[in-house]
Prior knowledge:
- This protein is globular.
- A hairpin with a 5-residue loop joins strand 17 (439-447) and strand 18 (453-458).
- Strands 1, 2, 7, 8, 9, 10, 21 and 22 form an eight-stranded mixed β-sheet that branches.
- The protein has helices spanning 2-10, 22-33, 71-76, 132-141, 151-165, 190-202, 221-225, 249-259, 310-318, 409-416, 463-482, 547-566, and strands spanning 12-18, 38-41, 103-104, 167-168, 182-183, 209-210, 263-266, 269-277, 282-290, 296-306, 338-341, 343-344, 347-353, 369-371, 388-396, 422-431, 439-447, 453-458, 486-492, 504-506, 523-524, 527-532.
- By secondary structure, it is an alpha/beta fold.
- Helix content is 24%, strand content 21%.
- It binds flavin-adenine dinucleotide (FAD) and iron/sulfur cluster (SF4).
- Flavin-adenine dinucleotide binds next to helix 2, strand 8, helix 9 and helix 12.
Amino acid sequence: MNINGDAKAACIYDAIVIGSGISGGWAAKELCEKGLKTLVLERGRDVRHIVDYPTATQNPWEFPHRNRMPEAFDQKNPIATKCYALDESTQQFFVKDAEHPYVQEKPFDWIRGYQVGGKSLIWARQTQRWSKFDFEANARDGAAVDWPIRYEDIAPWYSHVEKFVGISGNKDGLETLPDGEFLKPWELNCVEKHIQKRVAEQYKDRHIIIGRCAHLTEPKQIHYDQGRAQCQARHLCYRGCPYGGYFSSNSSTIPWAAKTGKLTLRPDSVVHSIIYDETKGKATGIRVIDTHTKQMTEYYARIIFVNAACLNTNLVLLNSTSKRFPNGLGNDNDLLGRYVAFHNYRGNIVADYEGFEDGYYYGRRPTTAFMPNFRNVRKQEMDFQRGYMVAFSAARSNWHLGASQEGFGAGFKDKLSDPGAWNVFMMMQAETVPRYENHVRLSADQKDAWGIPQLVTSIDYTDNDLKVMKDFLEQGAEMLDKAGCKNIKPYDDHRNPGLDIHEVGGVRMGRDPKTSLLNAHNQLHTVKNVFVTDGAAMTSTGSQNPSITFMALTARAANFAINEMKKGNL
Ligand SMILES: Cc1cc2nc3c(=O)[nH]c(=O)nc-3n(C[C@H](O)[C@H](O)[C@H](O)COP(=O)(O)OP(=O)(O)OC[C@H]3O[C@@H](n4cnc5c(N)ncnc54)[C@H](O)[C@@H]3O)c2cc1C
Ligand code: SF4
């Protein structure tokens, strides 16, 4: 009896966090800092900052295949290899297709990073705040349900997160893309500045800015305290940065939480489900499968944060069945897994710019130019719902292709170091409207290596998404034309949903338990000690890169949870 009692006591924590990625790292930091004994469960292996970045300083010729993946790998991994960031230097941080299968009822490219740090190691670090218009959009045009919070509720938490993460950006004073707590911005290059000026002259509502991103352009004491240092503009970030120049859980929140002495990090631990106790009317813990031994263990805590990344969070909750919740935890309304949304990236434009031959730029800037959404912002104006952000960059081409140029000797070598003409690349990041039909559910017959049902993805574009793309392709081409670009080529790359890697929803926040799963503080309406604070909680997608909003929601919910615990409500 005593032995069992001791064993159980060793498994009891104040808080459990499922997932150690961008949002889970933030939950761990906030909870540990406030003194909670916190267990972070991570299905992937441990990745320690610096020591586990084996490729961080390697040159292309030091890789067996010059930093490209061999064809055999691509054939075995048709989904993962679609991600632009996967190459020989980064492949260790991406899930391989065969190891973690799922069922695509409709094509969906699910890009995942299963390791300590999750996708925070391999994200592109763009961090644009949402505006008041984004939180009001559902109420304005009637899509999905109204957000239970507004910009003012989250603004202080954006600031809280930005100061710690370190966000480079310019104070642009735009209502559609609020300013934050910024470090020095990166600079637009001469062609981008030229396009910025021309667009500003011709369109009152279109503003080009330098992208806000999670890079330490001028570290403050709080960043040095994390052991991080100035970004060197190498843009080898997806390999893990030995300087901690960009924000990842591994360089920032996880070691910070560990320093408090309150953190237990358990890698190689797949969360199977959350345990619901009917007599207590709350969740009491979780079931975990060890990836090596395949043994199941239970851990217990007063509060549980689910941060497994949008679709896996849906999976964990759907798999958490009990007599009280036969269809998944908190799923009284059968909406769990529904209203999944994503970003539509299908529209792209390439163009040339003739001129500025004497202009160049310093280093490899790890961000790009952006234009906040200008469609349907204040009222419905177009024949489609919502809008899009535009991202673009201008760069000099050719010289790096020099090896394929003809020639030999000194003249050839000189040509190799000659920058070529300016090229412009533009793409859209469009909001998709959350729909009941776009959903994930558990497979009735297919299981993964741990005996957990596989996820079925049933997510697609709509006519609205095609109309948005058409508008972007016309407007983007027009703007580039007015800026003097040549050879403007708009195209649809026909990519599947998912490759944007910005999936959200399925466990949406709302005011009414009949139509939403979470309340304004990210608590399950019906199981108050379970918090969902990753993308799954999102009631719509906005057109901004989502992760800074996940972080702010997480910090806000964690501090709410701590206060509720103090009051004895949890
Ligand atoms: C190439 C690329 C570029 C991107 N660029 C941007 C960008 O510029 N800006 C932006 O905002 N976002 C970007 N993203 C998206 C961003 O990475 C995600 O939005 C963010 O990581 C989500 O945070 P998260 O905590 O929800 O999930 P993750 O960071 O993915 O972490 C989830 C963690 O949970 C773990 N987990 C899953 N299931 C279980 C389970 N059952 N038990 C235990 N652990 C589990 C996973 O292994 C993982 O470590 C990009 C992503 C990629 C891949
Ligand atoms: S660009 Fe900055 S953050 Fe990225 S790898 Fe280089 S130093 Fe690190």
